[in-house]
């Protein structure tokens, strides 16, 4: 990497712009996202996202050079990087990428498609964890249903370990649109309920060669009537006797996705 004098001023216009990008409305307005650290930046590069600019602090970087953008970074001081960073413990680099845009129309039709549907997931970290699990489980896409979803929030990016860059994650504000899309493709809708569903380990609910969507709702309210009516199968994860609380959404998604993987591979 070419040596150049680092930015040391906290009031530098480029620094102030990145600080503004920590706000969701500013990221949406500019159509960009923030990626921090080697893992997230290298995975954004690998996914082919358009790079707007990136910043690095020499003092904080290790000797890992693979996966960084080819363009020279703008060097900054430790204090400046800390000012720009979204997270409390920055890893030495931060990049601004163009936000990828996925829509339902972009998703290819697959005879045995496998989908994760996250309904009303308001916490970005939870959504990121669900996307990460969906990627590892081999899902073709994630449908993030609800108006408050911020798929490319820095917490979602970090908790997904960058999976949101490669696995199509489509924001669908209207749940009826998501239901219609699944119905048109003959996808079996398996809805997770806190109670009232069949035992997910006992019911024959996922079959090889069958298109399947696992639907998980918000922790505080669960799935609404739209999804209960749309469900071909209603599932409950059995809990230990005397348990006072349910799994959180990302854990429930992991249990059901990998149970589906097991069944679909038999």
From TrEMBL:
Q: Which residues form the tRNA/rRNA methyltransferase SpoU type domain?
A: 114-258
Q: Which InterPro entries match?
A: Alpha/beta_knot_MTases (IPR029028), MRM3-like_sub_bind (IPR053888), Ribosomal_eL30-like_sf (IPR029064), rRNA_Methyltransferase (IPR051259), SpoU_MeTrfase (IPR001537), tRNA_m1G_MTases_N (IPR029026)
Gene Ontology BP terms: methylation; RNA processing
Q: In what residue span(s) does the MRM3-like substrate binding domain sit?
A: 12-95
- Specify one Pfam family: MRM3-like_sub_bind
Residue stretches spanning the membrane: none
Q: Which domain of life is it from?
A: Bacteria
**Similarity comment:** Belongs to the class IV-like SAM-binding methyltransferase superfamily. RNA methyltransferase TrmH family.
Q: Which PANTHER family match?
A: RRNA METHYLTRANSFERASE 3 (PTHR43191), RRNA METHYLTRANSFERASE 3, MITOCHONDRIAL (PTHR43191:SF2)
Name of the featured protein: TrmH family RNA methyltransferase
| UniProt organism field | Algisphaera agarilytica
């Amino acid at each position: 990497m070419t040596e150049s004098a680092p930015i040391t001023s906290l009031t530098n216009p480029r620094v102030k712009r990145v600080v503004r990008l920590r706000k969701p409305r500013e990221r949406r307005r500019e159509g960009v996202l923030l990626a921090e650290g080697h893992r997230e930046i290298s995975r954004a590069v690998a996914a082919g996202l358009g790079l707007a600019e990136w910043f690095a602090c020499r003092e904080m970087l290790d000797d890992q050079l693979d996966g960084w953008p080819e363009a020279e970074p703008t060097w900054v001081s430790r204090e400046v990087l800390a000012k720009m960073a979204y997270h409390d413990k920055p890893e030495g680099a931060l990049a601004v990428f163009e936000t990828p845009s996925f829509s339902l129309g972009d998703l290819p039709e697959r005879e045995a498609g496998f989908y994760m549907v996250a309904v009303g997931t308001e916490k970005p970290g939870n959504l990121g964890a669900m996307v990460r699990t969906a990627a590892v489980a081999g899902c073709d896409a994630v449908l993030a249903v609800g108006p408050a979803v911020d798929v490319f929030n820095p917490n979602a990016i970090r908790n997904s370990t960058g999976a949101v860059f490669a696995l199509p994650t489509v924001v669908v504000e209207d749940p009826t649109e998501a239901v219609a899309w699944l119905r048109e493709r003959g996808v079996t809708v398996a809805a997770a309920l806190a109670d009232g569903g069949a035992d997910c380990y006992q019911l024959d609910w996922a079959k090889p060669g069958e298109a399947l969507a696992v639907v998980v709702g918000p922790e505080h309210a669960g799935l609404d009537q739209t999804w209960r009516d749309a469900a071909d199968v209603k599932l409950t994860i059995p809990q230990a006797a005397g348990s006072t609380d349910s799994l959180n959404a990302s854990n429930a998604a992991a249990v059901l996705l990998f149970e589906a993987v097991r069944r679909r591979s038999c």
